[in-house]
Amino acid sequence: MRQLSLILLFICLASAMVLAQTSRSLDEGAGSGQSVTNLAGYVRDENGQPLAGVTIVVRGTNKGTITKADGRFSLSTAEPLPLTISASFIGYRRQDIVARGNNFRNLDMKLIEEAVMADEVVVSASRVPEDIQKAAVTVERLGARQFANSPAASPFDALQNVKGVDLLTQSLTFKSVNLRGFGANNNNRFLQLTDGMDNRSPGLGFGFGNVAGISDLDVESIELIPGASSALYGPDALQGLMLTTSKSPFSYQGLSAQVKVGMNNVGKENFGPKGYSDLAIRYAKQLGTRFAIKASFQRLSGTDFIADDYTDRSTRARAGFFSTDPSRGGIATGIGYVPVSNKNANFEYDGVNIYGDDINAGGAFKYPADYENSLLQNRLVTRTGYTELEVLGNNGKVFNNRANVSLHYKVGRNMEASVGWYYGNGNFIRTAGFREYFPDYKRNQFKAELKGDNFFVRAYTTQQNAEGWNIGQAATAINNAWKPLNQWATEFGQAYVENKVSIDAARTTADRGRFLPGSASFNRVRDLFANTYNTDSVPGYKAKGLRFRDNSALWHYEGMYNLTKLINKVAEVLVGGSIRHYALNTGGTAVTLQSTGSEYTINEYGAYAQVGKVLKLGSVVTVKPSVAIRYDKNQYFQGGFTPRASAVVSVGAHNFRGSWQSAFRNPSPGQLFAVPGTQGGEVGGSRLAAESARLFTNPAYLDSDVRDFTAGRISESQLRSRAYDPTTFTTEKIKTWEVGYKALVSNTFFVDAFYFHSRYNDFIAAQSFYQPTNGRIADFSTNAYRTLQINFNNFNEIFVDGYGLGAEYGLGRGFTVSGNYAHQVGTVTLRDAQGNIRNDLSGAPVIKRKMSNPEVSQLGRNFFISPENRYNISLNNPRITDRIGATLTYRWTSEMWVEQGTTAGDVWLPSWTSVDAQVSYKVPSFKSVVKLGGTNIFNKYYTQGYGLASIGGLYYVSITFDELMR
After folding, report:
1. Which of 596, 654, 881, 913 would you call most buried, defined as having the most Cβ atoms within 10 angstroms of its Cβ?
2. Under a CB-based contact definition with an 8 Å cutoff, are residues 872 and 935 in contact?
3. Cα 145 to the center of its chain, rounded Å
4. What pLDDT sits at residue 965?
5. Which of 401, 394, 388 is nearest to 357 (CA)?
6. Among the residues of 428-514, which ranges form H helices?
7. Does 476 reside within a domain?
8. Does the residue 451 lie in any domain?
């Protein structure tokens, strides 16, 4: 209640700030005898046929409507004549017309067919509406045209066709957006906003994709900015932002509904195919001239893509993982480990998506050098694990519910107040250092907003219920509950003496009486561990549970004012600011508690200003320079400034842009306060998180340093000098510049190109550290250690360079061909804790070398998980006939070097291709569209990350009814 009262107080105060302006506007209108102007008109195509569903907007305001079935529209406004009316529709060139005293009741608008559309208006680049071609930074926009033409099953999935975007599929309902390198399953350097609200988990610190987004039918547009956007949006937008905007109930009215059915997992042996359904409904209604309501709901249910890679895991934890050149000090020349997926020929078999058999996470035993069976002396042996489906026991079923309700009221002229509720619920798997299952995620967001043409004030809260458990640790716990690892290893050793050539027979002997998947004993033990918090002991077992929770909340208040009119348009000046409060609630299961036993809170605040000016140089040349600066402060770190300078030079249809920005990022709550479970896990960078992991009394060491020690390349004293220091955690920094070019030539050819360069310092990553079980260095020689993922500041300098090109060409008769290509490379200069440049094992300094090079990766993970090259090519025609449209898309992504977490590994993922297609059929009499589509229609399975599910074909048919009962 206290926080809700603060929100109401914030809205009241903000409303009071603009009340005088509102009153003046109303009084001025009344004093001049001004009345409401009722506009009316008709929209038709080149052949004189009426166009239904055309968006009509009064330019410079938020007032709009849509044409009816006969092409007619009506719209009321308090704006004085003359004014500009804009009409836009998919596949047609936007038209503007001036409404005057002699035509405002009979506006006749004709739209001309245009295959290439490049006149979209965006707001994300500078927080004010502007032509996308004249934006100072690279901006991508997906709207109704792109959604309708895309073969993707949802608007969010359509992002996979945007240049430079890596959309990592973790679950059927959970996909992560990555841009410009460091492709993370949990990208906390990328900001996702839904109607201005942060989409990310308050405690875990990463976006849940579309798990808790808005209904597909309510998405009006998605804007995407690749690259640092911190100068206007704060430190969380270090690598870019995505702004999803829902449809206004004033402009998009009536009842819309969609029914979609499909299937996936085709060709899966003894499993697929599996069906899924996706149902959505939306209703919006304007009541009178000022009030409007909107409600939407969507439910998806089906079977997830299955993580079923059972090949032997490729990881640097393997002995002799890198092939080396002894003549050059043992420098790595490539990957020397050859996975052996035949369990009967591999003592150390560790399946990628088999859990409990992990060689470095409690699933392996190393026999001592004096073991009585000489065949097993110094031998590492893994026990038998369980597949992901066996551990989950749900046959891969997934569901997702999304809903939102909002009330909107027009206050005076050009001002709108609204309140809204946004809800998301579902189950999914996410991959961090481990695979983690969330069986029933719930999130509520409540927003209150007041906005006008030159300002907004907004307050919202995110309330989350997220409980999950670690799939890999659950499998290990089930194994240990049945039989301790030492006992299993003893029985294996005895059996292998009797069966000297059969590893499989020895495992079978040691596995006698093992809990079988799906059995009552298996389910009982799994549920005991999965439903017991990791702070509590499991009843009947001397072990902690595995369940963690993040029921944290976020409270956010922000506002912006455009001062341009107040200073007589001398320049475009924006000012704004925000206050944010995190109330963590994990019970110590995900992040540590304070010494008093209470939960941590985090307070942040920031303020920004932007100044820009359009300068006309002759009749065809304009220049728009702009400068923005923002200050942000997190209570646990020093505050900092994030400046941005940019300029756009327009010469006729040609637009050249350039920008430079310096930014920093505060660690997410999880990166700051995360604590490990009893069997390993993630550790935050704060002092208390380190104390919880006993890192002061029992130091941990980088996995690469431990391997150097066990291989004899460094001494024990050298290893001790490299122990993790828990006292140096700070913010992450970046400096980046970018140049670009956009042009629409002869209304048939559109091109967009960019080049960027970024430099990171104090890069934050969760690196693998080994902590000896008994606090002795000798423990490493006996495999007696636990693996921790510790968030710390990398000492290295990291550079990312890339470029991209997108183009679209109108072939005539409605056909367009489009494509895009993106290239990026990550390089690194390695430094030690004292700032000295490190050498590779041959003695050569490592300066600006590719992070995927083996001699660099050999010295430690850098996590630049991104393909160097990828491209898309599409052929599209939304109007092959007056009813039929179709799209064909080809996507290709090059191989990429992956360094991923505790149980994932180190591997070159192969390149992959996907062919996507859709055919749509309009049924005007029912205001409906039938769509038959599919992604990866040839069902060539691929993975976008090591340990993630394999993505095969997704096929669907949908029927969409739009704006019935309008």
Report:
1. 654
2. no
3. 23
4. 67
5. 388
6. 471-482, 485-498, 503-510
7. yes
8. no
- Residue 57 has which token pair? 């907007």
pLDDT digits (tens, 9 = 90+) for 810-833: 888 889 999 999 999 999 999 877
If pLDDT is split at 50, 70 and 90, which confidence band does 352 have? Answer: very high
d(CA 365, CA 362): 8
Per-residue model confidence as pLDDT tens digits over 275-315? 999 999 999 999 988 999 999 999 999 999 989 999 999 99
For residues 535 and 589, is the Cβ–Cβ distance under 8 A? yes
Q: What's the chain's Rg over C-alpha atoms?
A: 29
List the one residue out of 116, 401, 402, 366 whose CA is nearest residue 244: 402
Last residue of a domain, one of 533, 548, 563: 548
First to last CA, the chain: 38
With a cut of 60, say whether residue 941 has pLDDT above it: yes
Give the integer Cα–Cα distance in Å for 265 and 277: 14
* Sheet of strand 240-246: strand arrangement: 140-142, 219-226, 240-246, 191-194, 197-198
Q: Are strands 107-110 and 37-44 parallel, antiparallel or unpaired?
A: parallel
Structure confidence by residue, pLDDT tens digits, 103-137: 888 899 998 876 565 556 677 767 777 777 888 88
Distance CA 280, CA 300 (A): 9
| Residue 73 resides in a domain | yes
HSE-CB for 87 with a 13 A CA cutoff: 29
Angle at which helix 471-482 crosses helix 520-530, to 10 degrees, equals: 120
- The answer to whether residue 616 scores a pLDDT higher than 80 is yes
Whether the upstream peptide bond of residue 273 has omega within 30° of 0, thus cis, is yes
Q: Which residue has the higher pLDDT, 592 or 158?
A: 158
Rounded alpha-carbon distances, angstroms, from residue 480 to 171, 511, 522, 898: 29, 12, 12, 30
Rounded to whole angstroms, what are the CA distances from 164 to 157, 802, 874, 927?
A: 14, 9, 16, 36
Choosing from 548, 580, 608, the residue where a domain stops is 548
Amino acid at 663: A
Q: With beta carbons less than 8 A apart as the criterion, state whether 759 and 227 touch.
A: no
Domain residues for 75? 42-110
- Residue 15 clears pLDDT 60, i.e. is over it: no
Q: Which two tokens stand for residue 643?
A: 């400046």
pLDDT of residue 736: 94
CB 895 within 8 A of CB 908: yes
